[in-house]
Amino acid sequence: MRIKNKSAKVYKKQRRHLRIRQRVVGTPEKPRLCVFRSSKHIYAQIVDDVARRTLAAASSLKIAPLTAAPAAEATEKAKETKETKGKAKDKKEEKGKGKKEEKGKKAWTGGKKTAAAREVGRLIAEAAKQKGISAVCFDRGGYLYHGRIAALADAARQNGLRF
Q: Mean pLDDT by 10-residue block, N- to C-terminus, for the chain (163 residues)?
């Protein structure tokens, strides 16, 4: 793979990816689990490099959005906002009275993208089980083993994939 003149960040990522790909090769017995991460989504596929075939694939495009509200809830919210427009004066008066209740802080468990990566890890492990694949070698694609990449790998391991 030839690397074109690009920014330092992209160049370093491509160099890491080439270095990993020299060592990580998928075989029919132990295929390669490769990961691609875009700014919004994450993709994973299991590849047999000898036969040059993709055996299984999963992506965050195929899972339902984690925070999407159903259409019925959206219309109810729209109705509520129309009704409350006339009550703006009452809200201003109530705002000055009493203290707001402080909500307890929750422990951070990762954002929507990390949750989507966990779901993709679960899906790719299930797809691998259906194909009879139990062990893979992990190709992180030049990305650091952190955040979404680590979440995907951990979820795949928890669902029965060995690497």
A: 70 87 88 94 94 94 60 50 52 50 56 93 95 94 92 96 92
| C-alpha to C-alpha distance for 91 and 134, rounded to whole angstroms | 59
The CATH code that applies to domain 26-64+110-158 is 3.30.420.100
Question: Would you kindly state where each structural domain of the chain is located, as residue ranges?
Answer: 26-64+110-158
Q: Walk across the sheet containing 137-139 and list its strands.
A: 53-59, 42-48, 32-37, 137-139
The pLDDT of residue 62 is 79
Sort strands 32-37 and 137-139 into parallel, antiparallel or unpaired. parallel
